[in-house]
Amino acid sequence: MSLDIPGKGSKVYFIGIKGTGMCALAELMRNRGACVSGSDQGEEFYTDSILRELEIPYHESFDASHIRAAQPSVVVYSAAYSPESNPEMAEAQRQGIPMYKYTDALGAYSAGFDSSGITGVHGKTTTTALAGTLTRGAGLPVQVLAGSAVDAFGGRSTLNLGDKYFVAETCEYRRHFLSFHPKRIILTSVESDHQDYFPTYRDIREAFMEYGRLLPAGGELIYCADDPGASEVALSLKREKPGITIVPYGFSAEGAYGIVSFETRDERTVMRLRSFPGELAMRVPGRHTALNAAAAVALTSSLVKKEFGGAGSDGWSEERREGARKALEEFSGSRRRSEILGEAAGILFMDDYGHHPTAIKTTLAGLRDFYPRRRLVVSFMSHTYTRTAALLDEFASSFENVDVLILHKIYSSAREVYDGSVTGKTLFEEVRKKPGGHFYYVDEPEDGDELLFKILEPGDLFITMGAGDNWRLGKKAFARYRQGEVRK
């Protein structure tokens, strides 16, 4: 790919600039001196405030005249748009202006740095956020790009601490990560997902294999030894590419990043790693969070050794260790990853993006351990008909830790065609076959507020889960309880 990292004075125009990744990449390019502008739809998004703070101008509509006025040297566009549907892309194409899809632009950007990619079916956003948190604590000159806003990044999805290393979340869907240029890869998990593009497990496993093959000689694959799919990919790559280093982490891992103890104490996740002296504590629940943190420590240690190490030294000073440990304990998660909205009337309100059965199950198990005295009330909205149909049994078995479950219609995707074989009620009927718990179905999430007000009691934990828009139910309910509109 021929796109150079835009430097001072170059003009880059982003079509769909409010997207989390697009906004983040726009910020990184602006920080390197590029003249950045863009466009998007008029709907208010959390990135609006970021773009305004950065003083990046953008239009809240799409019009060919915007391209003519901006005269960009490069256009970066969201995969949601095409020249057939977007007049700005059509105009850029007519003028012969080079256009790059976001993932291709990100990949080209990564080629200019010592870059590390974080991937996997689950956990990549939190792991990227934790890696940024730890690298900052260790004093590394790094840029980080996560797939969601992170409190520790000041509510942004980017962290800018220097320009030597680049750490980014990289996505497997449609093999987008194959544009990236990694020297290190964290692989959190490999299992069946995105069935519209990867019909079988073998298909998605091969995509992760292709990504691993991009590692150069001397590169590192940091993988979760507790995940069968990640282990399978790692062992296959070890045979295929003996020039790369395979680094396991997890509860079953041998070596430096094995988790040798884990407990929940005083609403803290507390663990020990074989290589890291003392305890590591976090305010985020779950064994899955401990796994993500172990991966982030492994990546940070690799960078610390390269930046500060020497003959016989791993680069870690006591000051750097304490900086990393303190940063980790202050970590409070990322947007839509066990995100605490607040507490009102004695009820704790949370939101989580978990939309795959494995992620749902591990997140709920972590919450059960973290808040043992709270009743767990969950609103879940499944995402895509293909995923729901392919993993129906797994979804139905994901809610064993739930006291009360409210299910909704399936949140569809524009990339699939509904064949009528499965609906939200199909999942509801399967869940009802399971023992224990109280189960309800409300087609439209926001229509569930009156039912929710009858269900919730002081001391409950209410969490909206999924990649759909049922988060609106939690936000609406929290606002009403906080304002005292709901009384028992």
Number of strand segments: 21
- The whole-number mean of residue pLDDT values reads 90
Largest sheet: 10 strands, mixed
Strand order of the largest sheet: 8-7-9-6-10-11-12-13-14-15
Spans of at least 5 consecutive residues with low confidence: none
- Strand content range: 15-25%
Tell me the number of helical segments per DSSP (H or I, 4 or more residues long): 16
Helix percentage:
25-40%
Helix and strand content put the structural class at alpha/beta
* N-end to C-end Cα span: 61 Å
The general outline is globular
Question: Over all CA atoms, what is the radius of gyration?
Answer: 23 Å
What features would you describe in this structure?
- The chain is of the alpha/beta class and 488 residues long.
- Helices cover 35% and strands 22% of the residues.
- The chain has 16 helices and 21 strands.
- A ten-stranded mixed beta sheet has the order 8-7-9-6-10-11-12-13-14-15, with helices on both faces. The chain has a six-stranded mixed beta sheet with strand order 16-17-21-18-19-20, with helices on both faces. The chain has a five-stranded parallel beta sheet with strand order 3-2-1-4-5, sandwiched between helices.
- 49% of the residues are buried.
- The model has no long low-confidence stretch (mean pLDDT 90).
